[in-house]
Amino acid sequence: MRKIGFFILSVLFVIVLSSCKKEEPFKKDDPVSVKNSWIHYSVKDGLLDSVVQTVVIDRTNNTWIGTRNGISKFNGKTWKNYTKSNGLASNLVLSIAIDAGDNKWIATTNGLSKFDNEGWTNYSVQNGLSSNFINSVNVDTENNIWACTDSGLCKFNGKIWKTYTTADGLADNHVSVIAFDKAGNKWIGTHGGGISKFDGVNWTTYPRGNSGDWVIDLKIDKTGMVWVTSGGEFMNFDGSNWNVITHTILNGTVHSMAIGNDNTIWVGTFGRIYQIDGTGWSCFTTKNLGLSSPIESIAIDQNGNKWIGTLNGVWEMKQILTANSKIPGKLGFGALLTGK
């Protein structure tokens, strides 16, 4: 199942939840104070579609939002929308990455699009991709483009495409996400095979078993810690051990993550945002934010504002919220994973 499968399940979950439980009113003892801190953007404000799959920030602090009906760009004042009629390969956008030249690379269900802020170039299986269904895209420090498909991992150096599959050492051909550490290692999450690390020559696979092999998101923080969310687990890797993270306040599957400039970890679940700063957790809940939706994407702009993509539009956190109750203590750790 691809990322779109998570989207369908999430929509069904929203429908069930909305029919069973009403939002509670703001109370004095709620986890956070939200007065004048959040702004909600929807279709009526200029957003192309309310179902948001991905959010990224470019070098001039514009916000790029990928939806099921195209892309919206927001400069803080005005909106500009792009669809297939403008040159986009498909309106169903799953991921956006920005390279060193400020080109936008857009993963869609019908190929990969490059937008140089003036014109469009589309790549498909005819150009060297292994599949037109691109789950996500990322750019490494050498400006190579990496496209995660359901038929392998594709690398583009600006001239030619190269595909890596299980025949090369990849854990599974259904690739969901890729991230890069400071040493240049590629960390690859798959749908069914767990996680692969590729140093350019050698492959290491970290299997988990069951839902732990179904990787949704993967991020690497400034210390080199690898953070992973899978179908049923939230975990990290410190270079030696894989640790499953447990906490009494963590509700359900982690759908998205972001790393702040101060190395704070931001985590999105169903209707909740968590901040992990090394000393404890802060939880921002649906009770006072109205985030009755899975948090599909989190991006942090140059001013430290958080942009949160949901199935009900985009939320902007204008400042760090004041937590009335930070949950103290270290993260709880569970089972150990080993590489092979």
How does this model look, in words?
This protein is mainly beta and 340 residues long. The chain has a domain at 1-50 and 235-340. Helix content is 6%, strand content 44%. The chain has two helices and 32 strands. The strands form eight sheets. It has a five-stranded antiparallel beta sheet, with no helix packed on it. The longest helix has 18 residues, at 3-20. It starts with a helix and ends with a strand. The model is unreliable at 6-36 and 321-340 (pLDDT under 50).
What are its keywords?
2 helices, 6% helix, 32 strands, 5-stranded antiparallel beta sheet, 340 residues, mainly beta, globular
Q: Mean pLDDT, rounded to whole units?
A: 83
The portion of residues forming beta strands comes to: 35-45%
* Overall number of strands: 32
Shape: globular
Low-pLDDT residue intervals, each spanning 5 or more residues: 6-36, 321-340
Rounded radius of gyration (Å): 19 Å
Biggest sheet architecture: 5 strands, antiparallel
Distance between the termini: 25 Å
